[in-house]
Amino acid sequence: MSSLNAEEAISFFKSYGFRVDEESVREWIKDNNKMANMPYKRRPIVENDLYRYNDWCKVKGTAYEEGIDDRTKVARLLTENSLLKKEIEKLKAEKQQLEESLGLNDWI
Length: 108
Hints:
By secondary structure, the protein is mainly alpha-helical. It has two domains: about 1-60; about 70-108. The protein has four helices and no strands. The protein has helices at about 5-15, 20-35, 45-60, 70-100. Keywords: Coiled coil.
């Protein structure tokens, strides 16, 4: 595979069974073009770019997204921290419930 356009990149992902948000592929291409100083429509996509797109999707909207200011990073980290704390409490309650149903608390 030498190079692809946006439509080919979308087809490539779909051929592997990935659910691809076409708008995000186009946004990713625009972001890359800004960094490469290339026009949007003329930017070829090579296979390695498809893997970079996958990585880009993983960090998009997180504190690790490139180009965001420190306030945004901190706000996103605080949100993530809050969600993780809630998940921990949920898992603790589930653990307690499982221990009770198995009678493990009777051993203590």
